[in-house]
Amino acid sequence: MNLAALLDRIAVDVAPEVGRGAVADYIPALARIEPHRFGMAVAEVDGGLHGVGDWERPFSVQSMSKVFTLALVLSRGDGVWARVGREPSGDPFNSLVQLEHEDGIPRNPFINAGALVVTDELARRGDAVDALLAFLREESGRPDIDVDPEVAESEAGHADRNRALAYFMASYGNMRHPVPSVLDQYVRQCSIAMSCADVARSALFLARHGVRNDGTRLLELSAAKRINAVMLTCGTYDAAGEFAYRVGLPGKSGVGGGILAVVPGRCAVCVWSPGLDARGNSVAGVSALDRFTTLTGWSIF
Fold first, then answer.
1. How far is Cα 111 from Cα 231, in angstroms, rounded to an integer?
2. Which stretch is the leader sequence (predicted)?
3. Where is the binding site, in residues?
């Protein structure tokens, strides 16, 4: 299959969708992003890399980072599942409601409360962002991947809801480190800037059932399978059902406009377009992935 030509076709097909939706203006640094950007990259398990549009332009990964922190935590064991669930929330990604009903245990690791717990767990052996950056730089082959300080500062200044989530969980004993430290690491984690190519290459371990780009194993096959499963059921906030219906792949979105998707055994895909729908997912990004699975026939269903 000529993936380069396929991506060119997808870019043409979704062009009317590019610019639709709204950028994440509750984070001032993201509010300034040009909404008419579009990029898409496919990294194949055999090393092939293909892209279209702004596929090499860095953007804020935001919640896509949660896939990688979860993988790093699970590479050390599965104890984190005592602190966070694996069920869809059905509520917005920054909701406080379920925490009170469920004694400070977040519903899944991809809503903000759950991701804070994962970051807290990763920090047990040092700074979580240092560990994450080391992994991403190695997997992507890009030693210059780093936190965008402007986005981090902007996000830190508008983190009251996440701060509330963390303190609420701390009141139930579900924070191991001081909340300000965890929140700082979480904000920096979400503020990492990567391109579609970087994200796709970094996520290939999920397409390879836990094996990294250098051939070493990060995760047992079962752990990689379970991350993909949680991505499918929880990775696109409270639109996971619609995403599974349209795209049919494990996916994780971020309010920076990126979406990561995994085709087990074949490839990892990242698409970026900043305009978001009401649930925080890229309008053009979902459409592009819909076209991708339709045209390739690559779906887990």
1. 11
2. none
3. 63, 112, 155, 162, 186, 237, 255
Residue 228: φ, ψ to 5°: -60, -40
* Residues of the binding site for substrate: 63, 112, 155, 162, 186, 237, 255
Domain annotation for the chain: domains and CATH numbers: 3-296 (3.40.710.10)
216 has a pLDDT exceeding 70: yes
Assess contact for 275 and 35: CB atoms under 8 A: yes
Mean pLDDT for the chain overall: 96
Q: What integer is the mean pLDDT of 226-243? A: 95
Q: Which residue of the set 61, 186, 252, 262 is catalytic?
A: 186
pLDDT tens, residue by residue, 78-98: 999 999 999 997 666 666 778
**Catalytic residue at 66?**
yes
186 is catalytic: yes
**What's the CA gap between 83 and 79, in Å, rounded?**
8
Residue at 66: amino acid letter? K
Residue 44 β-bridge partners: 267
Cα dihedral: 172, 173, 178, 181 (round 10): -80
pLDDT tens, 131-144?
999 999 999 999 99
CA dist 176 and 73 (Å) reads 14
Cβ neighbours around 204 below 10 Å, total:
21
The model carries a pTM of: 0.96
**Is 252 marked active-site?**
no
> How many other C-beta atoms can be found within 10 angstroms of the C-beta atom of residue 11?
20
Q: What is the pLDDT of residue 58?
A: 98
- pLDDT (average), residues 281-297: 98
Catalytically annotated residue among 65, 66, 253, 262: 66
